[in-house]
Every structure is written in structure tokens, then in C-alpha cells.
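Give me C-alpha cells for this 263-residue protein.
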Amino acid sequence: MEGKPILEVNKLAFSYTNHQETFSDISLRLDKGDIFTILGANGAGKSTLLNCLSNLLTPLRGNILLKGRDITHIPINEIAKVLGYVPQVHIPTFAYSIRDYVVMGRAPHMGLLSVPREAEYEKVDTVLEQMGIEHLADKLYTQISGGERQQVQIARVLVQESEIILFDEPTNHLDYGNQLKILQIIADLAKKGLTILMTTHMPDHAILLGGKVGILDREGHMLVGAAETIISEESLKNIYNTQLHLIYIEQLKRMTCVAGNIK
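Here you go.
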């Protein structure tokens, strides 16, 4: 008998104005270890959808089930133990050290007034080292670059040890080498059994990661399927309103997405 999905979304719709829906009839099902990538143009509603899935916004209709339970009936602290969220943009307010900022990801596992113990900081040090950013540990969060901040945000959610991680454009602000590093981290997390849902503007990132893809169009509808079947030159043209090409590279044994020449 098939078990319950870890995350299930049924006919979700959202509107900021109650007049025009940002998206509607969004349905998806994610099991343990799945990677689900959402592709869509600017303004299509990708970030809004993630904010609904993380319970930061209230949908107009439809429901979200987290391990079979309606997310609106689960205490916030319990949600945080299952679901972590890396937003696209985070504006620093307080000058915490990176080590102190990342350890806040342990909050769902600690008491309300608890102070992080050495064991909590050991988890932080391990994650910072795994991500190759241990050199940032003593720097202030307000004094690092946007790209470094993005990596620190990911470290914080890894320390949270959630079963599902939502990434809103996790490679945003990163140079090409660090983009590939983050994609490798995401792939490794899925291999360890974590469920990943991410948004991106880069079709090649979805191709690299494989798994499931949702194409969110400009009318707020999402087509869901396997990456190798749903990503096509036609679907990409509909998203980005430009001609892109899918080319198979024999050396890499995979498809890649490329643009034509700039005239």
C-alpha cells in the first residue's frame, strides 16, 4: 500500500487583492527524497507559492498537507521541525556573528528560553565546514556579501534538520562556481532522504538536478511532470518569451539549455 506523501498540495489558489488570482489549481505531491523544481518567469508567483507552502501566507482556497496533516492545524514550532525555508532575499537587522546566526536554526529543537549548548554549536561548525564557509564563522552577518549571506541562510536551515527544505532561487547572487556547489549540496541532501522544493530561473539547473519539475505560466497555472519530459524548447519559450535550445552533449550524457547568438 502506497504511503502518504511528505508534502501534498491540493488545488491551491492565492490572491493578494481578491480580484485577480496570482495562481490557481496548484497540485503536487512530494515523497521523501524527491527534488521538485519550479520554473517560471518573473512575477509568475513562484515566491508567493513558497510563502504559502511555508505557512507565511494564507491561500485563497485549497489545502496543504504536511505528512498527512493540514498545515493550518499544526503549531508553528512543529512545522519548523519538518519544514525549513531559505528565502530569496534576507535583509540583516542585527550584527550577529555567523556562528550565532546559524545556531538560531536549532530553535525548534530547544526550549523557549534555552541557551544553545556546545552540542548545538558543534552542529553549526560541522555544517559550515561541509559548505566550505567555516572561514565566515566569526564574521558579522551584516558585513558579508549578498552571496555569502545566501550560503549562510542555507547553513542555518541545514542546522535546523528539517525533513523538507524550500529554496527560493538558492543560487541567486552566487558566482558560477558557488551555484554549482549549492546544486551539489541540494542533490546530496536528496540522496540522504531530504525532500527539496526549489524555484529557479535557470532551466539548466532543473535539468542538472532532474526529479520533478513544475512549470508555472503567466496565467498562474502549473504543469507538473518529470524533468526530462516536461522541459522542452516550446515550454521554455512560453516561460521566457524567447527562443532557447535543448542540446544533448555526448561528453556529459545529458541535455543542456542554451540561447542563440546575440546579434
